[in-house]
What does this fold into?
Amino acid sequence: QKEVEQNSGPLSVPEGAIASLNCTYSDRGSQSFFWYRQYSGKSPELIMFIYSNGDKEDGRFTAQLNKASQYVSLLIRDSQPSDSATYLCAVTGKAAGNKLTFGGGTRVLVKP
Amino acid sequence: NAGVTQTPKFQVLKTGQSMTLQCAQDMNHNSMYWYRQDPGMGLRLIYYSASEGTTDKGEVPNGYNVSRLNKREFSLRLESAAPSQTSVYFCASSDRDSDYTFGSGTRLTVV
It folds into this structure.
């Protein structure tokens, strides 16, 4: 079982709609949770991080964390064609220090 | 410009050849990392260095060695390249889990 699991997609959404991405993790000791966006051929860039249960909003992005169920999600509101990319979920744990463990990524396609 | 610089950007090796991937950061970060990315696999940690003078294995260290030359530089060496090491390699640095900065990557093909 992979430590961090994501649906590989592609997740196809029409422009202006909400894209919903999910991520589950196996280590109950995981403490910090991250969403990265990666365009084809580019390096990952941090979109959001969340440490506590609940929702965290930043512009069109909302991260949701549920530690009891061991999942973290990302909502992208008013999706734009420029949001088309692969979204990587990553976690760190107490035992892992600052090391990030990544999921396989979900490819998102926003169609005009 | 502040950031993480990786060289080379592209490389083709023959099976059995050796090479060193270079990484340098100018953000004064303590920790540095080497990841590899294969299609559908996300990024997997090869080695990391929590601070100058220390290195530790990550998830997939076999076939690689690293050197933390100083606080700025962290190199990754392939002693005898194999086709299974064909991948995109990313170097990163950080001081906290929320300030990771990635280099632009090295695309390595082993034939």
